[in-house]
Design brief:
By secondary structure, this protein is α+β, with helices and mostly antiparallel strands. Helices cover 31% and strands 14% of the residues. The chain has a 4-stranded antiparallel β-sheet with strand order 2-3-1-4, sandwiched between helices. The chain is globular, with a radius of gyration of 22 Å.
Length: 206
């Protein structure tokens, strides 16, 4: 006797009706374990914002960003430099360990997200996906990251000059070394960056 199939039973591996929860295909940051920081480290962090919450390059969001940085510092995270763009933020930080990194970025994210939602009169997540970070392991990499942050506005054609309100180059004591739009390899800068001690407790942009 042939067994009667229940209603809506799928008898083929091919889903003709396209039923069920749609697959998610994105280029976001997967929820894998973060790299373990064995010692105090310099990191380049990128935070991407959802398209609906974007248009961030304005004075209101700049003020929110500075408050978020201040709250991250209260958790022990040393935020050194920033660059604010239309739909993303770049940060140069120093973290003692993964715990401080996590607490600091949590404080940063909560402050940024709540304030942007309040300003836009929206709710829900603000980040496009998890923040991405790259470990900086040499003075040369650090120079390149600084150059990248300070010229980001020029790259995206949202700034006319490397010195502008939407990056923190004015907080760099030797910012004139970057003013030409590329890092000049002079002895003073090499000595400064090779020490890897570039965090200033009282940066001017706060």
């Amino acid at each position: 006797m042939k067994k009667k199939l229940r209603k809506n039973t799928q008898i083929s591996l091919i889903n003709f009706k396209g039923a069920g929860r749609p697959a998610v295909h994105d280029a976001g940051i997967r929820h894998t374990s973060r790299p373990f920081l064995k010692r105090p480290s310099s990191l380049h962090i990128t935070v991407k914002i959802k398209k609906i919450k974007a248009e961030m390059k304005n004075k209101s969001v700049l003020s929110i960003l500075k408050r978020a940085i201040l709250n991250a510092r209260k958790q022990g995270l040393k935020v050194i430099h920033f660059s604010l763009e239309y739909d993303h933020v770049h940060l140069l930080i120093e973290a003692e360990n993964n715990h401080i990194l996590g607490k600091g970025m949590q404080a940063f994210g909560v402050t940024l997200s709540k304030a942007i939602n309040r300003m836009r009169k929206t709710n829900g997540g603000v980040y496009k996906h998890r923040y991405h970070f790259r470990l900086i392991s040499s003075a040369r990499e650090l120079k390149n990251v600084l150059n990248y942050l300070f010229t980001n506005g020029l790259k995206h054609k949202t700034a006319r000059d490397i010195v502008n309100p939407y990056n923190s180059i004015r907080a760099e004591k030797k910012f004139f070394l970057f003013y030409s739009g590329k890092i000049e390899y002079d002895l003073d800068l090499i000595k400064l960056l090779d020490s890897m001690k570039i965090f200033y407790k009282a940066l001017e942009f706060i």
